[in-house]
Amino acid sequence: MIIRGQEELASLADIALGDYIFIYPTDTVWGIGAPLENQKLHELVAKIKGTEATKSLSLLFSSLSQIKMWMNFPKRMNDRWLNNFFTMESTLALPRSQVIQSVPLFVVPSDSKYVAMRMLAYPFLDFLTISIGGPITTTSLNKTGWQAMVLENDAIKFYNEILKITDKIIFFAGMGIISSGQSSSILCFEEGKEIKFWREGQRAAEIAKHLQLLPT
What CATH code is carried by the domain that includes residue 110? Predict the structure, then answer.
């Protein structure tokens, strides 16, 4: 199923979205994910990508208010700082001890000490996360070893291949989002320790300056 533009979101109102995989644009590359609690769909996403089903995934939210229902942020990270941070093609990893709600072990395995999250304030994502009652998982739309998808036309071609495996998939097209084609920067924060870059994306220098705004 392809949803073309924000105006078609209403057509999803009577669909059990918890039973679907999602393909969607992000600020970096095209992504694929599923509702957090659906293990069969997560295993299917792993099969589509050709990865191990035990690989840890990031959580994707549409607003800071949503994230704060799941995570306890360090006190020095105020709302203004966080909202700006998440506009910089960024991912934030926090220790499991700061997670309020349970994250399934098939999403973040027990040997992972951190839970990573992204926030994209997109109307279609807001509709999606509110409808299913929580975040979705997010990973790049590609086979292992392939380049991640940047253009919508390439993402649609891959979607058509996935339809040979399952028809329980929704593709969000025409959302007016331009992907940069670069990976997000991943930062790891643990109270009492220095904030570290796990991966530096194209806006890493901008993020490093933003980190200087945090009180010590």
Answer: 3.90.870.10
CA distance 111 to 172: 33
Per-residue pLDDT of 104-134, as tens digits, reads: 999 999 889 999 999 999 999 999 999 999 9
* Total number of domains constituting the chain: 1
- pLDDT at position 191 over 70: no
d(CA 2, CA 11): 11
Q: Which of 144, 172, 151, 181 is nearest to 52 (CA)?
A: 144
State the residue range of the domain holding 203.
2-211
Q: Tell me the pTM.
A: 0.94
Q: Is residue 216 part of a domain?
A: no
pLDDT in tens, 200-212: 999 999 999 999 9
CA distance 94 to 79: 16
Tell whether the torsion through CA atoms of 4, 7, 11 and 13 is positive or negative.
Answer: positive
